[in-house]
TrEMBL record:
<keyword id="KW-0547">Nucleotide-binding</keyword>
<dbReference type="InterPro" id="IPR006204">
    <property type="entry name" value="GHMP_kinase_N_dom"/>
</dbReference>
<feature type="domain" description="GHMP kinase N-terminal">
    <location>
        <begin position="63"/>
        <end position="136"/>
    </location>
</feature>
<keyword id="KW-0414">Isoprene biosynthesis</keyword>
<keyword id="KW-0418">Kinase</keyword>
<dbReference type="GO" id="GO:0005524">
    <property type="term" value="F:ATP binding"/>
</dbReference>
<feature type="binding site">
    <location>
        <begin position="90"/>
        <end position="100"/>
    </location>
    <ligand>
        <name>ATP</name>
    </ligand>
</feature>
<keyword id="KW-0808">Transferase</keyword>
<protein>
    <recommendedName>
        <fullName>4-diphosphocytidyl-2-C-methyl-D-erythritol kinase</fullName>
        <ecNumber>2.7.1.148</ecNumber>
    </recommendedName>
</protein>
<dbReference type="InterPro" id="IPR014721">
    <property type="entry name" value="Ribsml_uS5_D2-typ_fold_subgr"/>
</dbReference>
<dbReference type="InterPro" id="IPR036554">
    <property type="entry name" value="GHMP_kinase_C_sf"/>
</dbReference>
<comment type="function">
    <text>Catalyzes the phosphorylation of the position 2 hydroxy group of 4-diphosphocytidyl-2C-methyl-D-erythritol.</text>
</comment>
<feature type="active site">
    <location>
        <position position="132"/>
    </location>
</feature>
<dbReference type="InterPro" id="IPR020568">
    <property type="entry name" value="Ribosomal_Su5_D2-typ_SF"/>
</dbReference>
<dbReference type="InterPro" id="IPR013750">
    <property type="entry name" value="GHMP_kinase_C_dom"/>
</dbReference>
<feature type="domain" description="GHMP kinase C-terminal">
    <location>
        <begin position="202"/>
        <end position="253"/>
    </location>
</feature>
<dbReference type="Pfam" id="PF08544">
    <property type="entry name" value="GHMP_kinases_C"/>
</dbReference>
Length: 267
C-alpha cells in the first residue's frame, strides 16, 4: 500500500507558557498543504527501511516511520514490512514532514492490517511520536493548543488563494528554536483573529519564533519581505522555520527567489 503524507503550515504561533515537563504550551493554526512525500509498505521476510529523494539526517532506525511501526507493533503483532519513503517535503522546515510520515504510516498500518483503531486511538499513538504528529491523522484545518497536540476543528478554507512555500537553504532545529523564545500569554486569541479577512492578518497574526529565528538567519526575513513585495496578502515563517509561506490572490512572479531557495506552489 502507498500513501502520500502532506505537509502543514502554521498560521500564527503564540508560545504561551513553559510547562513543567520542559515543553511549551502554544496556540497555533495547522493548515494542510499539498506538498507531499510518498510512503510505501509491503510485507516482507524482515523489517527494512529505505529512502530516496531528499537525504534524511540521522540513522534509519530513528526514522519516524520505524518509530511508528515499533509503537503500534508493541500492541499488535504486525508482520515485518519493507518500507520505502520518497522524501520530497523539505526537512527542518517547520512543515512537519517527519510527523506527517509517522501519522500516515499509523493510518496505513491500521488500514492494511484492519486493526480497527479509532481516530482517537491513532492520535494517541501519534502524540507519543511528536507534538504535531496527531494533527496529521485527521489532517483538517485546526486550532491547536496545549503542546500543539490538542485540537478544535476550524472552518478555514483558503482554496481560492495561491499558497507559495519558500525553503531557503537554512536548517532550524525545533528544539533550538524553542530554547530561544520567551513564553508570554497572547493578548488576543488566534481562534478569533483567524476569522478576520486574510488581508488583515499581516498586522494581527504573528509567529513568536520569528523574533529569535530571523535575527539568527536573516535570509528567512529577506524571503518573507520578498513575498510581501510580490503581493502576498499574508506571509510568515511556518512553525520553527526555516520555510516561509505567502498567501496570494493570484500566482506571483517569484523566479528571482528560485536562485537561492526551493519554491513550491500549493495549487
Ligand atoms: C514548532 C512546531 C509548531 O507546529 O512545529 P515544527 O516547526 O517543528 O514543524 C511544533 O511545536 C513542533 O512539534 P514537533 O516537531 O512534533 O516537536 P517534538 O518532536 O515533539 O519536540 C521537539 C522539541 O521541541 C520542543 N517543544 C516541542 C513542542 C512544544 N509544544 N514545546 C516544546 O518545547 C522540545 O524541546 C522538544 O524536545
Ligand atoms: N520521515 C522523516 N522525515 C523527515 N525527518 C525525519 C523523519 N524521521 C525522522 N526525522 C528527523 O526529524 C528531524 C525533523 O524533521 P522534520 O519533521 O522535517 O522537521 P520540522 O519539525 O521542522 O517540520 C530531522 O532532522 C530528521 O532527523
Amino acid at each position: 500500500m502507498i500513501v502520500f503524507p502532506n505537509a502543514k503550515i502554521n498560521i500564527g504561533l503564540n508560545i504561551v507558557t513553559k510547562r513543567p515537563d520542559g515543553y511549551h504550551n502554544l496556540e497555533t493554526i495547522f493548515y494542510p498543504v499539498k506538498i507531499k512525500d510518498a510512503l510505501e509498505a509491503i510485507t516482507a521476510p524482515q523489517l527494512s527501511f529505505s529512502s530516496s529523494g531528499i537525504t534524511i539526517p540521522g540513522d534509519k532506525e530513528n526514522n519516524l516511520c520505524i518509530k511508528a511501526y515499533e509503537l503500534v507493533n508493541s500492541d499488535f503483532e504486525l508482520p515485518p514490512l519493507k518500507i520505502h519513503l520518497h522524501k520530497h517535503i523539505p526537512i527542518g522546515a517547520g512543515l512537519g514532514g517527519g510527523s506527517a510520515d509517522a501519522a500516515f504510516f499509523i493510518k496505513l498500518i491500521n488500514h492494511q492490517f484492519d486493526l480497527k483503531l479509532s481516530v482517537e486511538d491513532m492520535q494517541n499513538y501519534a502524540r507519543k511520536l511528536g507534538a504535531d504528529c496527531a494533527f496529521f491523522i485527521e489532517n483538517d484545518p485546526v486550532y491547536a493548543f496545549d503542546k500543539g497536540d490538542q485540537f478544535e476543528l476550524l472552518e478555514l478554507d483558503l482554496s481560492k488563494y495561491v499558497i507559495v512555500l519558500v525553503m531557503p537553504p537554512v536548517h532550524v532545529s525545533t528544539a533550538d528554536a524553542y530554547s530561544g523564545v520567551k513564553a508570554e500569554p497572547s493578548a488576543e486569541s488566534l481562534k478569533e483573529l483567524i476569522k478576520l479577512p486574510v488581508a488583515q492578518w499581516r498586522d494581527r497574526i504573528k509567529n513568536d519564533f520569528e523574533k529569535t529565528v530571523i535575527p539568527k538567519y536573516p535570509l528567512i526575513g529577506e524571503v518573507k519581505q520578498a513575498l510581501y513585495d510580490a503581493g502576498a496578502l499574508y506571509a510568515s515563517m511556518s512553525g520553527s522555520g526555516a520555510s516561509v509561506f505567502g498567501i496570494f490572490e493570484t500566482l506571483p512572479p517569484l523566479e528571482h527567489l528560485e536562485a537561492k531557495s526551493s519554491v513550491f506552489y500549493n495549487v
